Amino acid sequence: MLTDSSQAGTGPVNPNRNLDADAFTLRRRPPSEKLVDLGFRQLTLVLASAVAIVLLGIFLTVFQGAREAISSFGLSFLTTSSWDPVNEQYGAFIAIYGTLVTSILSLAIAIPLGVGTAIFITEDLIPSSLREAIGLMVELLAAIPSVVLGLWAIFVMEPAIRPALNLLHSLLGWTPFFNTVPQGPGMAPAILILVVMVLPIITAISRDALNQVPLELRQGAYGVGTTRWGAIFSVILPAAVSAIIGGVMLALGRAMGETMAVTMIIGNALNFDLSLLAPGNTIASMLANQFGEADGIQVSALMYAALILMLLTFAVNVAAQWLVRRLSLRY
Amino acid sequence: MANPSPITYDNTALFDRRPLHFDPGLRRNRLNLLFTSIAGIFAAIAVLPLVLVLFHVLMQGGRLISVSLFTQLPPPPGLEGGGIGNAILGTILVTLIASLIAIPVGVGGGIYLSEYSSRGWFAQFVSFGTDVLAGVPSIISGVFVYGIVVATRIFFDQSYSAMAGGIALSVLMLPTVIKTTDEGLKLVPQELRWGAYGVGASKFVTVMRITLPSAFTPIATGIVLSIARAAGETAPLIFTALFSPFWPEGVFNPIATMSVLIFNFAIMPYEAQNELAWAASFVLVMMILGANLLARWISRMAKV
Q1: How far is CA B199 from CA A7, A41, B193, in A?
Q2: Radius of gyration of chain B from Cα atoms?
Q3: Which of A36, A264, A273, A302 is CA-nearest to residue A153?
Q4: Among residues of chain B, what percentage have pLDDT more than 90?
Q5: I need a surface site. Which of A54, A89, A157, B225 has the fewest CB within 10 A?
Q6: Residue pLDDT, tens place only, B12-45
Q7: Could you give the count of Cα atoms lying within 13 Å of A18 in the half-sphere of its Cβ?
Q8: Cα–Cα distance, B228 to B286 (Å, whole number)
C-alpha cells in the first residue's frame, strides 16, 4: 500500500537523466491508491460513528430494560420510597433524594475550595515550583481510583470525623437534618468523599479559565491602583465566571454518577431519613449494590432508576458543555 | 461663578497625598493578606486528602507486600494468608481487552474528526456525542453492557465474563481516546500535510506517515491516561466481569480484578480480607501513579 505513493519519486535515479518536461508531469493516481484512500476514509467514518451508536445503544438498552417498570410504576416511582422486592413494589425517592442532596451539598463545599485553590496557583501568590507541585498533586488526586478512596473513607476518614459529626449532632440535633446519632456510614461522610472527588475537576477547570484571562486585563486593574484581591474579585473572576460555572456543572454531573466511594460509605439505607447523619442511598449506589443479584421486575426497576440517573447527568452535562463551549470571557 | 483657583504644585489640598510606600496597616492590604491566607488554607485542604490517602495506602498496603501476594489466590473468607495474583492478572487482562477495542476505534474516529470531516453536522454530532459519552456515569456503561452482553448471553451462552468487563471499560475509554486523538491531530501544522501532498503522497499515506507520527506524543499521553483510568474503574465491572476467587479461566468466564477485589474485601468483616484490600490498593495505586508519571514523561520528552 505504502509503495504506491513512492513509485513516482524513488527508484534508481539515473544521474544523466535528461530533466525534460516529461519528468514533471503530474503523477497519475493509480486506482489502487484511490481505493485505499476511499476505504480508509470510510473506515474512519464508521469508527467515528461508533460513538453515536454506543450512545444510542446505551439509551435504547436502558430504556428497553426499564419499560416494564415504567408501565407498572409510572411516575409515582419518583415520589414513593418503598423498595420491597418481596411485594414487588419499587420507588426510587430515597435514591433520587440522596443523589441530589449529596451532589449539591458536596459542590457547595467544593466550589470555594476548588476556586480558591485555582486562584492560589494561578495568581502569582507563591513561587512557581510550589504552584506546579500543588497542581500536580491535585491532578494525581483525580487519578486515585474511586474504590481506593472508598476504602480509605471506611477505615480512616469516617472514624476520624465521627467526633466532629457528634459535635454537629449535639449542637444542631434539634433540626431534622442532624437529629440522628452518627454511627458509621451515612450521608455526611459520603458528601465529604464526594468533595474530595470533585475538587480536582473544579480546580483544573477554574485554573484553565483563570489562565485564559488576558494579561492586559490584569495590568489594567493594577494600573488603576487596586490590590491583587481587588483585581481578582472585581475583574479576573467576573471575566472567567462562565467557564468556571461550566466546570462546576461538569463536576455536578460527575458527583451525581459517582459510584464506588459513595456506595462504600453512604450506608445504603432502605428507609427514608431527612438527617444527613443517617445512612442514605444514591441511584448509583443502589445500582452497584443490587444489580448483580436482582432478577425479574427488580432489574427493570433498577434500569428505570438508571434511566433517571442518565437523564439527570445528561441534562447537567449538556448545560455544562454549552457553558464551557461559550467560554466567552465577559469583559 | 467663582474663579477656579489654578492648580499649582503647592495646591496640595486637591490631591489626597497617599504615601508611596507599602503600608501593611491599610484596610485594603490587610484584606489582601486575609484573602491570600484563606486561598492558601483552601489549597492546603485540597491537597490534604491526597497526602492522607497516599500515606495510608503506602503504610497499610506497603507492609503487606510479599512474593506470595503476587503469586497466590485470595483465601476463603475468614482464613489468613493468600495473595491477589488472580486479581492482578485479571485487571491486566480486562484492561487489555478494553484497550484493544477502544484504541483502534478511538484513534480512527479521531482521525475522521480531524482529517476528513469538514466540521459538518455529522462531525459536530460526533464530537457532541463524545462529550456526552464522557459524562455518562461509569455505572451506566456497566448497566448497558449487562443489557447487551450479559443478559443476552451472546458469547457462547456465557453470562458474566472478562470480555463483558473489557467491553464496559472500552465504552469509558472511547471518548477520551477520540478526544485526545482529535486534539492532538489538530495541533499538527497544516504545512506538514501540504508538504506531504506536494511530494505526491496520497491522503492515506500522509495521515499514516506524517500526521499521525507528528501527533504521537499527545495521543500516546491521552491513551496512557485513559488506560490508567480504566484499570482503576470498579463500577462497570461489578456486574459484568463479576468476580472469581480462582485463576482466570479464559476471557469468557467471570474474572477477578483488583478494583472489584478491593470493593468486595473492604466490606467483609474479616481482617485478612481487609488487609488484602489495602494491599491491592497499594498495587493499583502504584500502577496508576506509574502510568501518570509515564504520561508526563512522554509529554515532556516531546517538548525538548
Answers
A1: 11, 21, 10
A2: 28
A3: A264
A4: 25
A5: A89
A6: 555 566 666 777 777 888 888 898 899 989 999 9
A7: 3
A8: 11
Residue to test with chain A: of B34, B38, B91, B136, most A Cβ within 10 A: B136
State residue B155 phi and psi, 5-degree precision: -95, 95
Rounded to an integer, what distance in angstroms lies between the CA atom of residue B125 and that of residue B136?
A: 16
pTM metric for this prediction: 0.86
| Helical axes B271-303 vs B258-266, angle rounded to 10° | 140
Give the whole-angstrom CA distance, residue B219 versus residue B294. 13
The answer to whether the Cβ–Cβ distance between B239 and A291 falls below 8 Å is: yes
Cell 417498570 belongs to residue = A69
Instruction: Please name every residue paired with A84 in a beta bridge, in sequence order, or none if there are none.
Output: A89
Which among B144, B235, B284 has the least Cβ separation from residue A57? B144
> Phi, psi at residue A82, to the nearest 5°?
-85, 130
Closest by CA position to A125, among listed B251, B89, B33? B33
pLDDT in tens, B119-138: 788 888 888 889 889 888 99
Mean pLDDT of chain B: 85
Q: What is the largest CA-CA distance in chain A?
A: 101
Q: What is the model's pLDDT at position A203?
A: 92
pLDDT confidence of residue A21:
55
CB-nearest to A51 from B52, B142, B175 is B175
* Cell numbers linked to A309: 440517573
Q: A90 - beta bridge partners?
A: A83
How close B3 comes to chain A (CA, Å)?
31
**Which pLDDT tens digit goes with each residue over B159-211?**
888 888 999 999 999 999 999 999 999 888 888 888 888 888 888 888 888 89
Residue A121 corresponds to which amino acid?
Answer: I
Residues 6+ apart with CB under 8 A from A315: none
Compute the average pLDDT of residues B284-302: 87
Joined grid coordinates for residue A126: 507563591
Q: Please say if the pLDDT value at position A25 is more than 80.
A: no
